[in-house]
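Margin note: ligand = manganese (II) ion.
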Amino acid sequence: MESKEIFFADADSSFEEAQFVILGVPFDGTCSFRKGARFAPKSIREESYNLETFLFEHDVELEDVPFHDSGDVKCEALEEMMGGVGNTVENILNQDKFPIIIGGEHSLTPPAVRKFENVGVLILDAHIDFRDQYLDERNSHACVTRRVSELVGIENVLSLGVRSMEKKEKEEVDKLGLKYIDANKLKELGMKKVLENVKWDRVYLSLDMDFFDPSFAPGVGNPEYFGLSPEDAKECINILAPRLVGFDITEVSPPFDNGNTASLAARFVREVIAVKWKTNKTTK
Ligand code: MN
Ligand code: MN
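Resulting structure:
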């Protein structure tokens, strides 16, 4: 049974007025382990109501920011999800707005990225997601980085926080020249230092919540220990904000969450809106 629809807190603007548009993608059809990401858009929206509208650190009052929640994309099957994400993102971009996509599993990223021109894609993820196919499916959540690199050119992709890949993936990553910084190296160098080498003018940021250590974000589809902290992703958003053109957040699995993982995801949606809004105001 369908439960009552809930929208992200403070997303009170109409689509026309909004500078940021949220869309939910309740899909976990290719999930291979802790299934449940289809419940994440609702869970993240629920958690958003606990957070203050004023982000004091950025001096941004979200009630002053025009943003809209366009609800969920219809996505019972993989193809339907991909088509729905693509069409919705295209519509948002055509109106010069900033899309914020709340998954759902990570497989939503390629159909979103496909709609951007001249973009570099930064992926925060424990997994390299570079299989050519997984369980006979090329559009699986386990093939995201591979598909994205085909769409935008492998030189325009960087994966950060990696600490899991199979041997064959490693060989193909090395052969095809995918750039990545593993979790240990990222901790050693620090986010700021690593991002000094990111020269793209326009950046799409994809945050797979398993980038974080499971002690911070336990409710994810494929948890991996030895991960990064919320501060690392926050620093990344702060640094890249002027160049961000799109954002997705994926892989929260509410059946395995006590609410904190969804809460962290909700906070990052608010962080992106606040920091991007502040940057827009000071550069226009
Ligand atoms: Mn992923
Ligand atoms: Mn992952």
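The pocket of manganese (II) ion (ligand 1) is lined by residues 106, 125, 127, 129, 141, 144, 208 (CB under 6 Å).
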